[in-house]
């Protein structure tokens, strides 16, 4: 029986997920951490085992559902897809990119098509119920116990491609969610959008924090391990590629307050407070505020002048609603350069841990190390230098200038600079197949000329 290329890709991708999952479990078990082993047994018996039993019991329904959607396909095509609700970045951005690209590509539909969605909660549950409610207002969302067994079996059996809502169809697997290779986001208005009632409620909630509708506002998200530790009960979620020290952002926060711009530090929880020489009405630390809410997280992220991030889920609000981004302290350099048009990036510089030798971008890309996660590179002797407070101060100063001038005009002018062109030329061609959307901070490139050697 011949199977489609899309089916083989999907099967290979799933086998890759299983392989990485098993390797991670073996590695973590070898660590012999009693807390980790206890958590794994708990997860196996309370989540995986009931999930397997449920799938077995619902197998007759799944077979019936697959038979129905395939039999009626000549007259009515039903496409099914999960909404990944476990992490807010996936909950917002995955769904937004799928809908945006589907509309942009205008896939020809020779027959009526109905798209059905269900919520996948995993073992972490729903990361933001307000966001999920926004999607439920716009999409046909049915109970998971009805659709998930049908969707899973349809994906497993050959011949079901046209009954699957395509996840980033045509986008190479290695690009993931952070490449807009078709330029769709510039052409299509956001699918994720707040209603007038949401905006009114968000405005009132913000006013209780002292944020008026006319205030200039910047959102800041600095990733640490607190949220995942709270969600999973594990104490080893240190990500050397994204976690950063909040103290490094104090000078930049001070600069913004001196310009009369209010700063809101985002997040559900955090390990450390943002403390500096400013009044409490100018810098709001939401993770330590009793007034923080899921609605405020989304409303503030949607109305800020620009969003400063280290690459964490909540910045998906800015991605989805086309809010300008300043990306700092990331090790996956391409993250926003090829997704968000109004973005300025500085990244962690690679370094050999044993010798302290700084690694240029050219060398980093030629060796293929850029494809590996930071945790793996650390084990192979490659580390990353966190952005300094002065680097962060410089890029936020540039963002404030871009906001005054207009991000389109500012980024258009910077992209013509020779240093910027030299830097972007180093990135592999397949990275740039959808065009370069953002820029690398000019001050960052001037500060570290060796990167382009």
Give a structural overview.
This protein has 453 residues and is an alpha/beta fold. The chain has two domains: 5-172, no CATH class; 196-452, Glycogen Phosphorylase B (Rossmann fold), CATH 3.40.50. 45% of the residues lie in helices and 12% in strands. The protein has helices spanning 5-30, 34-57, 59-71, 88-105, 129-138, 144-156, 184-187, 196-208, 226-232, 250-258, 294-303, 316-320, 361-366, 374-379, 389-405, 407-415, 418-426, 442-447; strands at 77-84, 113-120, 217-221, 262-265, 283-285, 306-309, 325-330, 343-347, 349-352, 382-385, 439-440. A seven-stranded parallel β-sheet has the order 5-4-3-6-7-8-11, sandwiched between helices. It has a two-stranded parallel sheet with strand order 1-2. It has a two-stranded antiparallel ribbon with strand order 9-10. The longest helix is centred in the N-terminal third of the chain and has 26 residues, at 5-30. It starts with a helix and ends in a 6-residue tail after the last helix. The mean pLDDT is 85.
Give me the secondary-structure topology.
Blueprint: H1 5-30, H2 34-57, H3 59-71, E1 77-84, H4 88-105, E2 113-120, H5 129-138, H6 144-156, H7 184-187, H8 196-208, E3 217-221, H9 226-232, H10 250-258, E4 262-265, E5 283-285, H11 294-303, E6 306-309, H12 316-320, E7 325-330, E8 343-347, E9 349-352, H13 361-366, H14 374-379, E10 382-385, H15 389-405, H16 407-415, H17 418-426, E11 439-440, H18 442-447
Parallel strand pairs: 1-2, 3-4, 3-6, 4-5, 6-7, 7-8, 8-11
Antiparallel strand pairs: 9-10
């Amino acid at each position: 029986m011949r199977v489609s290329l899309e089916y083989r890709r999907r099967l290979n991708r799933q086998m890759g997920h299983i392989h990485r999952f098993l390797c991670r479990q073996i590695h973590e078990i070898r660590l012999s951490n009693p807390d980790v082993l206890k958590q794994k047994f708990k997860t196996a018996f309370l989540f995986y085992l009931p999930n397997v039993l449920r799938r077995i019991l619902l197998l007759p329904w799944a077979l019936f559902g697959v038979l129905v959607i395939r039999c009626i396909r000549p007259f009515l095509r039903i496409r099914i897809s999960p909404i990944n609700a476990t992490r807010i970045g996936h909950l917002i951005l995955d769904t937004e990119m799928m809908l945006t690209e589907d509309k942009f590509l205008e896939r020809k539909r020779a027959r009526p098509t109905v798209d059905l969605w269900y919520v996948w909660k995993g073992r972490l549950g729903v990361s933001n119920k307000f966001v999920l409610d926004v999607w439920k207002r716009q999409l046909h969302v049915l109970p998971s116990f009805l659709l998930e067994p049908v969707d899973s079996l349809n994906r497993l059996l050959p011949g079901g491609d046209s009954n699957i809502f395509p996840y980033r169809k045509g986008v190479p697997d290695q690009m993931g969610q952070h490449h807009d290779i078709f330029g769709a986001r510039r052409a299509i208005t956001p699918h994720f959008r707040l209603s007038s009632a949401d905006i009114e409620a968000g405005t009132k909630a913000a006013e209780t924090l002292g944020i008026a509708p006319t205030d200039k506002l910047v959102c800041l998200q600095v990733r640490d391990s607190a949220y995942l530790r709270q969600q999973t009960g594990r104490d080893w979620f240190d990500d050397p590629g994204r976690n950063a020290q909040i103290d490094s952002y104090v000078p930049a926060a001070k600069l913004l307050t001196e310009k009369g711009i209010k700063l809101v530090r985002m997040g559900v929880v955090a390990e450390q407070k943002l403390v500096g020489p400013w009044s409490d009405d100018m810098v709001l630390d939401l993770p330590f505020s009793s007034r923080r809410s899921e609605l405020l997280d989304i409303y503030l992220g949607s109305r800020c002048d620009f969003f400063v991030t280290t690459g964490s889920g909540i910045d998906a609000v800015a991605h989805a609603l086309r809010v300008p981004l300043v990306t700092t302290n990331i090790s996956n350099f391409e993250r926003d350069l090829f997704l968000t048009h109004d973005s300025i990036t500085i990244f962690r510089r690679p370094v050999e841990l044993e010798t302290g030798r700084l690694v240029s971008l050219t060398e980093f890309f030629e060796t293929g190390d850029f494809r590996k996660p930071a945790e793996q590179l650390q084990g192979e002797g490659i580390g990353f230098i966190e952005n300094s407070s002065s680097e962060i101060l410089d890029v936020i100063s540039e963002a404030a200038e871009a906001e005054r001038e207009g991000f389109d005009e500012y980024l258009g002018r910077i992209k013509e600079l020779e240093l910027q062109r030299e830097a972007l030329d180093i990135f592999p061609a397949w990275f740039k197949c959808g065009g370069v959307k953002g820029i690398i901070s000019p001050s960052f490139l001037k500060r570290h000329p060796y990167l382009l050697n």
